[in-house]
Amino acid sequence: MGKLGKITRRVFLVGAVAVTGGVAVGAYAVTRDPKNPLKPDEGASLNSYVIIDQDGVTVIVPRAEMGQGVQTSLAALVAEELEVPMDMVRVEHGPPAKAYANNKFLLPRGYDAEPPMKMVNTVMEAMPRMLGMQITGGSMSTVDAWDKNRIAGAAAREMLISAAAERLGVGRDQLRAENGAIVATDGTRLPYAELAEAAATMTPPDNPPLKDPADWKLIGKPLPKLDQPAKATGTAPFGIDTRADGMKFATVKMAPRIEGEMVSYDASEAEGMAGVEKIIDLGDGVAVVASNTWLAIQAAEAIRFEWGPAPYGATTDEIFADLEAAFDTEPNITPHDHGEVTESDDDLVAEYRAPFLSHAPMEPMNATALYTGDRLEIWAGVQGPIITQQQAAEAVGLKQDQVTLHTTIMGGSFGRRGFNEYAIYAARVAKEMEGTPVNVTWSREEDMRHDHYRPGAIARMRGRLDGDRIDTFKADLSAASVMRATMKAFMGIDRQTADAMITEGVAEQPYGFPNVLIRGYVPERTPRVGFWRSVGNSQNAFFMESFIDELAHKAGADPLAFRLAHIEGTDAETAEVLRTVRDMANWTGETPEGKGRGVAVTYSFGTPVAEIIEVSDQDGAVKIDKVWIAADLGKIVDPGNVEAQLISGAIYGLSAAMLEEITFEDGKVVEGNFWDHDALRMNNTPDFEVTALALGGAVGGVGEPGTPPAAAALANAIYDLNGTRLRRMPFRHDIDFVT
Amino acid sequence: MSYKITVNGTSYDVDLPGEVPLLWVLRDELGLTGTKFGCGVAACGACTVQVDGIAQRSCQLPLDAVEGAVTTIEGVGTPDNMAAIQKAWVDHNVAQCGYCQSGQIMQAAALLAENPDPTDQDIDDAMYGNLCRCGTYPRIRAAIHSAADAMKEA
Ligand code: FES
Ligand code: FES
After folding, report:
1. pLDDT one-digit tens code per residue, A479-494
2. Measuring CA to CA, which of A39, A269, A568, A572 is 20 to 30 A from A261?
């Protein structure tokens, strides 16, 4: 239990009212009146981000840590203005609360902030409302916190200075904040802990001055990540590690035809198995409660079920036939239609495909819950804590304020934990086990076969060249709607609305085509889909950047120069990123025999990222030797974390491009574990070289944008190597890789 | 029936069926949650522990087959008293989500015990069974080299 748990001690909360009141109004309209959720029994509460006590400073980072480094980066923004070194800072996630709503989520920040791109992006603005306002996702945590957290830190600092001014009877101009203390010109030093109580009574300033970037001590420097010692010693408390006295361990076995029916089950054998305590009918599956997770999983395997049919195509072929048929329906979205686009005289026509994918985070889905009649307590790693609290309350027949949710750190998510049904199942299991805490953990197979998958997709691309320029660009994209899946999961509404995620990764790329038509199509039925790291960009960037490559070759142009020529006039940052990666890799457009190089560039989450991949032929198998990545973040909080995230994103994208695929037979997902849904390993991970630019624009996201260009850069490199044009993922169907 | 096992120098009597894998004895019975469940089928390495210094997948090791002293991540070092290998992990900011890292460290520690100066190829050979979905491999590699250097100096 951290600071919030023992808040009955003498603890003073100092300042984010500035964020919620003064300066923030207008800029942060949705935060106009959120209540500070930190309620100490003693002392005053002024700020929903900063707690000061005798032990130091606790910063609330109300975004979920799933490996993207958010807890350190967001705490550093507060610490910078508060003038505390990072080793004095502790971080807590804090309770679910409207005060921690995301104000900037999936909103354009760069060249696409203006019409016509803006129109498309505004479709996405409803997302935070659906997910209950407080969400971690869309690579938007730093974007959202950039101003807010600095203002929160600055407000607290100013209040501490005011308290010191009163205490010492000197003017505020005689005082400065330094290293966790207010220091007077005569050298008197008052540590924050001594001033916190008085500071908490000060009126928060409306417009606390923010530091000159030249004076930053933390922002822009590589930061020691606060979570490292715990994660290197096995002491970091993941959701799955939740333990309590008298705890039982459970697992679930849900309908293998996802969202299909459970007709009946026979648990007679399971009931008699070692350690089994209870078998619970969940309607669309069962939970087995036992004394040990493994015993619960064994018993669940011994239950005989009869399952109803799948509410989607029963095989991969049928599902892709639905995607093909969608092209004959009205478009779901047409983000671009301008210039003159005719249906004929294309120079190049190509169709590409991407499979369904599982997220497969290392920590399988799990949650722990304790139901005591009038209260429900849940421990779960979720990206949307408020909506989870609401839905769990509903599931057990309590009011939202009777539910306490502890958002744990997550062993990866990549978008998976944006959906929360594992937490709701745990709540329902706990209700049947009143008074007993139950840790409900899924087997890996259950996890992989009950995901919210990256949608499978088909792209039909057409282009016409005018000399060495693209004159006409057409893209028809068919994929299941993640927006629809989201509304269904969180609002209980199942219907089609315009979904910019179908076309993202193609629609907002800064190529400046004179004539362009981009349309998105959605099949009527689909296996369950969800957000997968970079969402629509994950497949569409592969389609887009492969097709651009094909057009470059058709035009007889160098693929990098060809891209640059189109982009330069549209977006200076993306062009700079391309030039940067070109220079890093000494790109000449020529590669020796036995080597191949490919390039791809994608603008996503406000961040342009360009990647060059070099491959070599090893006795007929392809080896990835090196990846160069350049990105522009606008501003950088922690360059070390940015580097890690860009590499992580690329590895995630390459793993999928080369190896991963979810297929369906008899309505059930075939792949069940890392044997058949593998990823890059130590031995086939290439070398990386990363340059993160901070060209000064608004801060961009970093958790996702490393992923989109990876697949196309690899496909383009393989084309350069041996002339094989890969138009479907995973590439292992068409290429042997060195393992 | 009850089984006697020794974990991190402490001996325990465990009253569970003999086929329960060590992983689930550690996690659910002894409360040693540093060892992680990733796949249950020897495909990810998250559950790696050492038995008499040899790296083993605890999800594949039934309780009744545990012979020898078990070391888990908790036995390697604590946040206030980290082993050299753990310090190297911290210095390189290796962990992202961190879920795989107990297993990575247990595997790497076994490698270093046997081979104090591993080449990149040695690291590939020892570590390829340890999956990291966050893709921290470049930093794991760097941390292993740093730990090797630190351990040589010590
Ligand atoms: S859990 Fe044992 S190898 Fe994956
Ligand atoms: S750090 Fe997340 S799985 Fe390795």
Report:
1. 999 999 998 998 888 9
2. A269
